[in-house]
Amino acid sequence: MGDEGKADAIAQNIERAAQRRPNTTPEHETITRDTNIIQTRYINPLHTIPVLDDNGFLLGDSHAIMIYLIETYGNDCSLYPDDVKKRARINQMLHFDSGTIFVRQLRICLPLFITDVKVIPEENLNALIEAYGFLETFLQNSTYIAGDSLSIADFSLIATVTNASALVPLDEDEYPRICAWRKLLEALPYYYINKTGGAAFKALLEEELSK
């Protein structure tokens, strides 16, 4: 099966998994800015999104949510396989996302969004550039983030990289592996979800920088 066929199969499995979710209202609740602060603290003390409400089971953090959904409702375990070594590699890259590149992006974004500071310190930009270098190296011997097949590590990191590139654009000559990997994911039939989110983030960033 070619890459396009694999992508279609994965998309179908994601759709089937979504159809098997508990039939409650709301099925999966995402916290918004308008959510009452008391309710927000009850659902997620960190006040962050996304948050999953699966028939009363509350779970925060996108990485944990993806693992839970696959193990509970997924038909295609290739996104998070049972093989211990493959799963360990995926976990490594999920932690790289949450502990390295996302944190460095956040260090740039938070002051822009919650303070009057509109100048990005050079050391913060350099830290994000360094994280790009790490990611380029990780992709040196594999097609996808955690190996030669698509996994939830790719889903996690493409969102972070898309937003980070609004802060520090990716140069294809400097980061050819990252850019090639990004093009692979852009061909997926459900990539539009990430594209929409990335465009919204970029618009918000540009609005803040223009103030």
Mean pLDDT: 84
Tell me the CATH topology of the largest domain.
Answer: Glutathione S-transferase Yfyf (Class Pi), Chain A, domain 2
Number of strands: 2
Percent strand: under 5%
Instruction: Decide which structural class fits the backbone.
Output: mainly alpha
What would you call the shape?
globular
What is the ordering of alpha helices and beta strands? HHEEHHHHHH
Number of domains: 2
Gyration radius (Cα, Å) is: 18 Å
Task: Please report the first level of CATH classification, the CATH class of the largest domain.
Answer: Mainly Alpha
How far apart are the termini? 50 Å
Q: Tell me roughly what share of residues is in helical segments.
A: 55-70%
Unreliable sequence segments: 1-35
Largest sheet: 2 strands, antiparallel
Question: Largest sheet, order of strands side by side?
Answer: 1-2
What is the CATH-assigned architecture of the largest domain? Up-down Bundle
Number of helices: 8
Protein described:
This protein folds into two domains: 3-78, 3-Layer(aba) Sandwich (Glutaredoxin), CATH 3.40.30; 80-209, Glutathione S-transferase Yfyf (Class Pi), Chain A, domain 2 (Up-down Bundle). The protein has helices spanning 3-19, 37-43, 62-73, 84-114, 122-138, 152-167, 176-186, 192-209; strands at residues 51-54, 57-60. With 211 residues, it is mostly helical. The protein contains eight helices and two strands; from the N terminus they run ααββαααααα.
